[in-house]
Design a protein that fits this description.
Largest sheet: 3 strands, antiparallel
Bound molecules: zinc ion
Structural class: alpha+beta
Radius of gyration: 23 Å
Order of helices and strands: HEEEH
Number of domains: 1
Length: 117
Amino acid sequence: MKIPKHPTLIRRFLQARQKQLQAQCPVLAASLVTIRRTCGNPNCRCARGQKHLGHYLTWKLKSKTHTAYVPVDLVPQAKQWTQEHRRLKQVLHELTQLALALIQTHVTAQRRKRGRS
Ligand SMILES: [Zn+2]
């Protein structure tokens, strides 16, 4: 995103992103990962190299990583919900950049009005 210079434009950008802040589905602040693993049964195909695929969610809480198993039929939902979190995080980041730009252009405009540049 390129941040506009003019306050009116910045406000317009801000309003557009405020609307994007509405969650379209549940929001899941975690990463969906696929792990290949063996189940421990020496007679299973995984012992001969064909490992099982497992889907997990991982997230950090107080600098500790947590993991949760995701049943295969819930993987599409988990994917959508984590993507929604990523989207919202990006919108929040852009809102912050724009709000800061608005404050900074205000300061510059005030200085200009007082004859300092
Ligand atoms: Zn196995």
